[in-house]
Write a structure and sequence with these properties.
With 322 residues, the protein is an alpha/beta fold. It contains nine helices and nine strands. The strands form three sheets. Strands 2-5-4-6 form a four-stranded mixed sheet. A three-stranded parallel sheet has the order 7-8-9.
């Protein structure tokens, strides 16, 4: 149920139209067909626009960002209304048992819910997965709810580089030290709750999700998000094997591609797991360019690209080999 970018673009436009906000600049033009290009047009300052038009673009960008959050939250609820997938449970347990550093650009909390399904009985909470302190939303009521992240090497770490559907902050223009609050989730999977009663605690906050635009620098000023990127780079430098699941490495995501290209060490094995075969080509091209003809310093495993159920097959082969 989680949408691809074209699906997300259509759902966002549908939501805006339903709320009588369908007059967002660019809607109805070819640019709206490319979601990233459309968001870049709204958030940047095109030199041909007047100052009033630039401000209208900027205001519309925040409407679109709110619609993204709503659309993905609804998709997440539809997903958790279905039984969890056995392969996902096995994958998350594999990460936990191998103390994997899991770097994700996704906003949803499906990994956290699958993890809670297995480990909640040991008094764990989802925040234990995060390697930085995300403030529990209950603290805004005066209550103090502590949690202890797993020590490094004693369980998986989840590094959410683009934020999360349950994270909130003070929005555009907030200072670097602005706290990020976690609305949390009650698991396990079958009993997932959005905890709507917490909505009143974030009424003055904005979702901490980094939109899929090429221009993201203002979001990376937040110290929590920056810390996650620093730890992700460290994990890449230490990794002998990097498994890239589902990420298509779009050329517009220059920052993530740059981190891969500059931080992956010589001799590392990279395993793209994707229904698209061209992801392996993208990786080969990326490292050929950066390593100036020394692409053999890394190896690209093509065994799990071009397959409809690539992730499930990887789980079968690696987690539960016959």
């Amino acid at each position: 149920y989680m949408p691809t970018l074209p699906d997300l673009s259509r759902e966002v436009q549908r939501q805006l139209a339903a709320e009588n906000r369908g007059n967002v600049p660019g809607v109805g033009t070819p640019i709206a067909k490319d979601f990233e290009a459309w968001l870049n047009y709204l958030v940047s300052t095109p030199p041909w626009l007047s100052d009033p038009d630039r401000l209208r673009n900027r205001a519309a960008f925040f409407d679109v960002a709110a619609a993204i959050h709503q659309a993905l939250t609804e998709a997440q609820l539809r997903t958790t209304n279905d039984p969890r997938r056995e392969w996902l449970q096995k994958l998350v347990m594999h990460w936990q048992e191998n103390s994997a550093s899991v770097i994700t650009l996704n906003y949803d909390i499906l990994v956290e819910l699958a993890w809670l399904t297995e480990y909640q009985q040991s008094r764990h909470v989802a925040q234990d997965l995060y390697s930085v302190a995300i403030t529990p939303i209950e603290t805004r009521t005066g209550a103090v709810k502590g949690y202890t992240p797993e020590p490094e090497g004693q369980g998986m770490r989840l590094l959410k580089l683009h934020g999360s559907l349950t994270w909130w902050y003070s929005g555009d223009g907030s200072p670097p030290g602005d706290p990020v609050y976690d609305q949390g989730a009650q698991g396990p999977w079958e009993y997932f709750s959005r905890q709507d009663h917490h909505r009143q605690y974030v009424i003055d906050k904005a979702p901490m999700i980094v939109p899929p635009t090429a221009v993201k620098s203002e979001y990376y000023g937040n110290q929590i998000i920056r810390s996650l990127w620093v730890q992700a780079a460290e994990a890449l430098r230490d990794a002998d094997e990097i498994v890239i699941m589902g990420c298509s490495l779009p050329p517009s995501d220059l920052l993530f591609r740059s981190m891969l290209a500059t931080e992956v060490k010589a001799g590392a094995a990279i395993v793209p797991v994707n229904l698209r075969e061209d992801v392996a080509n993208e990786l080969e091209q990326l490292f050929e360019v950066i390593l100036a003809g020394e692409a053999a310093r890394v190896t690209i495993n093509r065994n799990y690209v071009g397959k409809e159920k690539a992730v499930e097959q990887w789980v079968i082969d690696v987690v539960n080999p016959e």
